[in-house]
Specification:
With about 625 residues, the chain is of the alpha+beta class. It folds into 4 domains: about 120 residues, PAS domain (Beta-Lactamase, 2-Layer Sandwich), CATH 3.30.450; about 110 residues, Beta-Lactamase (2-Layer Sandwich); about 60 residues; about 170 residues, Heat Shock Protein 90. It contains 14 helices and 20 strands. It has a 6-stranded antiparallel β-sheet with strand order 7-6-13-12-11-10. Strands 2-1-5-4-3 form a 5-stranded antiparallel β-sheet, sandwiched between helices. Strands 15-17-18-20-19 form a 5-stranded mixed β-sheet. It starts with 11 loop residues before the first helix and ends with a helix. It binds adenosine-5'-diphosphate.
Length: about 625
């Protein structure tokens, strides 16, 4: 019998769902990984750039602060106030110009000049240059206006004369409280840009309108970060801050806003266009300083993380698949073992049921056998009794003869005695009476034999005198022998022989065998039967021989079968030998039949000899 396995696999639709789930999960994981790794990389980049930006701003601020206090210092020089009060003094103008030139040189500034209250430049460090500032009016510049308001003026602009970018510091020159004019120092920030250009980040400084005026990228200059309104552009033009320069637009596109100072922007450049923009205010100057760092490093970091996450995910999926397969195999094996166990249990159950049934059947059969055996025994006992009665029947004629004869004799003796007594012949009468007495004794003997024959067996196997049993049997068959004129010879040992048997039954067996022998020799001219007894090896051997026709060979194996007979219905039932055989068997002896060489049959009966002890107990029992 083969055991079928439950096919443990996923359906196609389930597989598709699982695949979709795995892919979806991969998508979610990758998206999340990209998000996190980008954030981390951005944070790192931001930290780096923040540092750069701080340095940049500090540098810029340092540059400006270096000059910030100089105009104020200059304003305290009485030379300047004197000249503002008396501008027509030629000696003092030269002296002042020279003074300003010296200061300018020492301070390494671009230009240093003095303006009167109307905004006219009246003395300048570049008094000897081709295009000196003297005689020019800069009253429109905000730094002048701030100074005239009593404050430190600051301004960034493209020089209208020099066409160079400069940062202007202006400070009022006072006569007591009254402001007479302003002293201005212009510095250039050109070298500053140069020194920062080597870094990979781009730097840009914007004015309050968002226009870049300092940048490490030359193309960005005078461009606004975001598109500006026309009015704003017009205002810028009006202010002449960038003189006649065209105000363009960088037009950056803001993307992810990270914090107040940090934002991802797109610079419009197709390659590497995404940048991290960091902003720091410079409130005193009114500037905003920006750094732009390319996101290439961030992107490559994200890519690396994605690659790593994908590999890790695939490894986990493979591991899960492997474990799933293993568990599946273990489960399959468990299922197989369970099935095999169940099959085995079922088989054992079936076999056990078969065995139980067979056992029950066997017990029933044994019980039936026992009952049959009992019935058989009963039947046999009854048959033995029946056979006895049959033999009795057969003997009845002989018995009749045996009894009638003495009865008739008794009668005649009685008649004779009475007649003799009437004649007073007492002696003769006494002789007749004596004959009567002898005859009645003989009749009593016959009657006692019949009593023995009819009595039921005791069933006890005891020590019995063989000679006595043979005598009893012959008494029963005696009339038969006499009637058929059969000669019976007895060859018996002189000493008494005791065998273990049931006396009545042994008599019955002998009666049967002798009766059969009588029947066998019936047709012979000389009818002869012999009973021979001998002992050998603890056994008594009793042979009943006859000179009849013997037993036909074909019948030899059947004569002990019940109801086997070759005789007519009224003479034999075919039970004698079978009953005899069984009786002898019960006595632990044996009964066999054979044909004699000289003709006729011989039946041999073997019985255990009784030991001395048995003999004694047998005698006790007989009492
Ligand atoms: P029954 O005498 O009623 O036939 P038995 O069982 O005593 O039944 O004998 C069975 C048969 O055995 C007899 O019918 C006879 O054929 C055969 N048989 C028995 N004794 C002798 C014998 N002494 N000689 C020949 N045949 C015998």
């Amino acid at each position: 019998m083969d055991i079928k396995f439950a096919h443990f696999s996923l359906k196609k639709s389930h597989r598709q769902w699982l695949l979709a789930a795995v892919v979806a999960l991969l998508g979610v994981i990758l998206w999340q990984t990209a998000h996190w790794s980008r954030q981390i990389a951005l944070e790192n980049l931001q930290q780096q750039n923040q540092h750069q930006l701080r340095l940049f701003v500090a540098n810029l601020q340092g540059q400006l602060e270096k000059y910030e206090f100089l105009p104020e210092l200059l304003s305290t020089n009485s030379l300047l106030l004197n000249f503002l009060q008396y501008p027509n003094d030629v000696n003092s103008i030269n002296a002042l110009n020279r003074y300003l030139e010296t200061i300018n040189k020492v301070a390494n500034a671009s230009d240093t000049y003095l303006m009167n209250a109307e905004g006219w430049t009246i003395a300048a460090s570049n008094w000897l240059s081709e295009r000196p500032f003297i005689g020019r009016n800069f009253s429109y510049r905000p730094y002048f206006q701030q100074a005239m308001e009593g404050k430190l003026g600051r301004y960034f602009a493209l020089g209208s004369t020099s066409n160079r970018r400069g940062y202007y510091f202006a400070y009022p020159v006072r006569d007591k409280e009254k402001i007479q004019g302003a002293v201005v120092m212009k510095i250039e920030l050109l070298g500053f840009e140069e020194s920062w250009r080597s870094l990979k980040e781009e730097f840009a400084v914007t004015d309050p309108d968002g226009v870049i005026f300092i940048s490490t990228n030359d193309t960005w200059r005078y461009k606004s970060l975001y598109p500006l309104d026309d009015t704003v552009i017009a205002r810028i033009h009006d202010s002449q801050r960038y003189w006649k320069a065209e105000i363009g637009t960088l037009a950056i596109t803001p993307k992810d806003r990270i914090s107040e100072q940090a934002q991802v922007v797109n610079l419009g450049d197709p390659r590497h266009s995404d940048h991290l923009m960091l902003v720091q205010e410079m409130p005193e100057a009114g500037w905003r300083v920006h750094t732009f760092a390319s996101l290439d490093a961030v992107n490559s970091q994200v890519l690396k993380s994605l690659l790593f996450a994908t590999i890790l995910y695939i490894a986990v999926v493979l591991l899960v698949l492997y474990l799933y397969q293993r568990i599946r195999r273990i489960k399959e094996r468990e299922r197989f073992e369970l099935r095999a166990k169940r099959v085995l249990e079922r088989r054992v159950g079936e076999r056990t049921a078969d065995l139980t049934a067979a056992n029950t059947r066997l017990l029933q059969e044994i019980e039936e056998h026992r009952r049959t055996d009992e019935t058989l025994r009963q039947t046999q006992d009854e048959l033995i009794q029946a056979a006895k009665m049959a033999a009795l029947g057969q003997m009845s004629s002989g018995i009749n003869h045996e009894l009638n004869q003495p009865l008739a004799a008794i009668r005649s003796y009685a008649d004779n005695a009475r007649a003799l007594l009437t004649r007073d012949r007492q002696e003769e009468a006494s002789w007749n009476l004596q004959q009567i007495a002898e005859l009645t004794e003989r009749m009593a003997k016959i009657s006692s034999q019949l009593k023995v024959f009819s009595r039921k067996t005791s069933g006890q196997i005891v020590s019995v005198s063989l000679q006595a049993v043979i005598d009893n049997a012959l008494k029963i068959v005696g009339p038969q022998l006499k009637e058929t004129e059969t000669v019976l010879r007895r060859v018996l040992p002189e000493e008494e022989i005791y065998v273990m048997s049931d006396m009545v039954q042994l008599e019955q067996v002998l009666v049967n065998l002798i009766t059969n022998a009588v029947h066998a020799v019936e047709q012979q001219a000389e009818r002869c039967i012999q009973i021979a007894v001998s002992t050998r090896q603890g056994k008594a051997i009793i042979e009943i021989l006859d000179n009849g026709p013997g037993i036909a060979k074909v019948n030899l194996g059947r004569i002990f079968d019940p109801f086997f007979t070759t005789k007519s219905e009224d003479r034999g039932l075919g039970l004698g030998l079978s009953i005899s055989y069984r009786i002898v068997e019960m006595m632990h002896g044996s009964l066999t039949a054979a044909n004699r060489e000289q003709g006729g049959a011989v039946f041999t009966l073997q019985l255990d000899l009784a030991s001395v002890a048995q003999l004694r107990s047998g005698q006790e029992l007989a009492k």
